[in-house]
Each structure stands twice: as structure tokens, then as C-alpha cells.
Design brief:
CATH superfamily of the largest domain: Winged helix-like DNA-binding domain superfamily/Winged helix DNA-binding domain
CATH topology of the largest domain: Arc Repressor Mutant, subunit A
Helix content: 55-70%
Shape: globular
CATH architecture of the largest domain: Orthogonal Bundle
Structural class: mainly alpha
Number of helices: 7
CATH class of the largest domain: Mainly Alpha
Number of domains: 2
Order of helices and strands: HHHHHHH
Strand content: under 5%
Length: 179
């Protein structure tokens, strides 16, 4: 880590990283702009506090993305997911991506319940759009091993989400009570 940043250096760093950081968070909250902005603001507030004490990390964007990941996990662990229609989540579809804030909240909650390794693998595949081969290269694994781990991670996520989806069948969306 280096020394403290000047205001102009901080503004430049912000401009260099904000798009990637916002895109990372926005994909994981189903495009809910308000929530994404709040979480990105939290990440930057942590960065300002931490960097003032410890200096700038070698890879500021990587640091911001790790803090964003942790912030998202904390956010989704605190949620009580609303029941959703099981048809809105098909994690077997390789093109699946939670497009609505409601679906993203349920999937985010489910990922927050999984082990870090399973959640990161599913995030890389579904949210970041990485191929099995790209994930394998990054993790020094064979594509076959990645496919096996993806299959197990999907199964764990499916079982976790089943608790939320099962309730939606018992209590239709239009009948649900707020509370």
C-alpha cells in the first residue's frame, strides 16, 4: 500500500473504477439502481476510511470489488426473501441471470447462504458471464472439474432456494400479505 491520496488522485481513481464497480453491484441486484447506488456508496465510504488509515492498496479495483462482494453478502444475509414463482428461476439454463430486483434478491440471498467457493463459482458463471474454460484457467483447474463443481453448487443453490420457492406455490403472489 502506498501513502495517502490527494483529492485530485482520489477523483481520478473514482472515475477509473466507478463504472466497473457499479456494473458489478448492479448485475447482482437485478438492476435495482437505488440499491446498487446505496451499496456502491457504502463500498466507497469504506474505501475512504480504510485507505486514509492504511494507504491505497496495490490493486484498488480488486479491493473495491472484494469489499463490494462482502457488502452484497452482508446485505443479502439480512434479507428475508419474498416467495417467488419457481418458473422465474431456472439455474440449469446457462443463460440464466436474475433480471428483476425480486429475483436477484432471492438468488443473492441463496448465494449468501452457500460456501464462499460455491457462491464465487456461480457468480463468475452467471453474473460475470465467464465460460467454464475461463473459470478453469483462472482457478488452475480442468474444465471438467469446473463443470462438476458448478453442478454441485447449482444443486446446493437449488435446495436453498427451494425453501423460498416452495412457499410461493403454497401462497400465490397476489394473495401474499406484506409484513
Amino acid at each position: 500500500m502506498s501513502g495517502p491520496l490527494s483529492e485530485s488522485e482520489l477523483v481520478l481513481l473514482y472515475r477509473q473504477t466507478i463504472r466497473a464497480l457499479y456494473a458489478y453491484v448492479s448485475r447482482r441486484v437485478g438492476g435495482d439502481a437505488g440499491l446498487a447506488e446505496d451499496l456502491v456508496q457504502d463500498v466507497w465510504m469504506r474505501a475512504l476510511d480504510d485507505w486514509a488509515r492504511k494507504g491505497l492498496p496495490r490493486e484498488p479495483l480488486a479491493w473495491l470489488l472484494r469489499v463490494a462482494h462482502n457488502t452484497l453478502v452482508s446485505h443479502f444475509r439480512k434479507l428475508r426473501p419474498q416467495p417467488i414463482d419457481p418458473a422465474s428461476i431456472d439455474i440449469e439454463d446457462e443463460r440464466f441471470s436474475p433480471l428483476t430486483a425480486e429475483t436477484a434478491a432471492v438468488v443473492g440471498w441463496g448465494l449468501a447462504q452457500l460456501s464462499r467457493s460455491h457462491a464465487e463459482l456461480l457468480e463468475a458463471f452467471y453474473f460475470d458471464g465467464q465460460t467454464v474454460e475461463e473459470i478453469a484457467r483462472q482457478r488452475s483447474m480442468s474444465p471438467r472439474a469446473v463443470e462438476g463443481r458448478l453442478r454441485r453448487a447449482r444443486e446446493k443453490l437449488r435446495k436453498t432456494l427451494a425453501r423460498v420457492m416452495r412457499r410461493s406455490v403454497e401462497l400465490p403472489y397476489a394473495v401474499r400479505r406484506e409484513g
